[in-house]
Amino acid sequence: LAHLRRGTVTVAAGDPVRVGQVLGEVGNSGNTTEPHLHIHAERDGLGLDLEFTGITGPLCRGRTVRT
Fold it and tell me: Which is deepest, 1, 30, 42, 52, by most CB within 10 Å?
């Protein structure tokens, strides 16, 4: 996860996490006009497909998802 609000991260590298657990608040770091989040997951160096409840269709570069 990238661009989390400073001081709000609730986990550390290697911590187990559970579904629905708050990991931190989205912030507005970098050269942007509004808060946003970058997310990437991998295992053994290979990217993982991510699925989100209530979000349909492919999650790809340039897609905006609002909930």
Answer: 1
